[in-house]
């Protein structure tokens, strides 16, 4: 069976309609900003309509200008949320009205991980704590992966 690839902007209205009817939507991740937990072209996330207030460590789908981005909440403010990709250094501020969906689970290979699982949340907390040295760890991951594939 041939795979069909579509851009997020082409299907966002369909996703939002499904979520508004208390449904869910699943899609594959494109990009590396959420590495190491989400992998480009490999990780599939399941989205639902956000139930506010959201909390620290939730992963949200939000829109900025014409782009839709999936990043993690790293702080909750009165006016909105501070978010950052797991592989990034810079934080962004997102208002509640920019948030389209929240991730409830993700699948890497065939392993389903609920975003609320204790061990997973613990790993994410540790990763956030390592923010000052994450770029070095990511480089190390990539070197080890490259050697593993040779």
Structure description:
- The protein is built from 3 helices and 8 strands, in the order αββββββββαα.
- The protein has one domain (8-149): Umud Fragment, subunit A.
- 27% of the residues lie in helices and 33% in strands.
- Strands 1, 2, 3, 4, 5, 6, 7 and 8 form an 8-stranded antiparallel beta sheet that branches.
- It has helices spanning 8-20, 118-129, 134-149, and strands spanning 24-28, 44-48, 59-64, 67-77, 80-84, 92-94, 99-108, 111-114.
- It is globular and about 45 Å long.
- A hairpin with a 2-residue loop joins strand 4 and strand 5 (80-84).
- The two termini are 29 Å apart.
- The longest helix has 16 residues, at 134-149.
- The chain is α+β, with helices and mostly antiparallel strands.
Number of strands: 8
Indicate the CATH architecture. Answer: Ribbon
Provide mean pLDDT, rounded: 92
Shape category: globular
Number of domains as seen in the coordinates: 1
**Number of DSSP helical runs:** 3
CATH H-level superfamily title: Umud Fragment, subunit A
- Helical proportion? 25-40%
Residue fraction in strands: 25-35%
Structural class: alpha+beta
Radius of gyration: 16 Å
* Strand and helix order: HEEEEEEEEHH
Per CATH, what is the topology? Umud Fragment, subunit A
**Main pleated sheet:** 8 strands, antiparallel
CATH class: Mainly Beta
Low-confidence stretches: none
How far apart the termini lie comes to 29 Å
């Amino acid at each position: 069976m041939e795979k069909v690839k579509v851009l997020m902007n082409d299907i966002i209205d369909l996703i939002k309609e499904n979520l508004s009817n208390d449904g869910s939507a699943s899609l594959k991740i494109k990009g590396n900003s959420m590495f190491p937990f989400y992998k480009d072209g490999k990780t599939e996330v399941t989205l639902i309509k956000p139930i506010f207030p959201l909390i620290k460590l939730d992963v949200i789908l939000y829109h900025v200008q014409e782009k839709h981005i999936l990043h993690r909440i790293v702080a909750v403010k009165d006016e909105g949320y501070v978010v950052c990709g797991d592989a990034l250094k810079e934080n962004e501020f997102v208002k509640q009205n920019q948030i389209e969906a929240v991730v409830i689970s993700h699948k890497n290979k065939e392993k389903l991980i609920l975003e609320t699982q204790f061990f997973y949340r613990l790993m994410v907390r540790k990763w956030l704590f390592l923010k000052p040295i994450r770029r070095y760890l990511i480089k190390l991951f990539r070197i080890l992966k490259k050697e593993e594939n040779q």
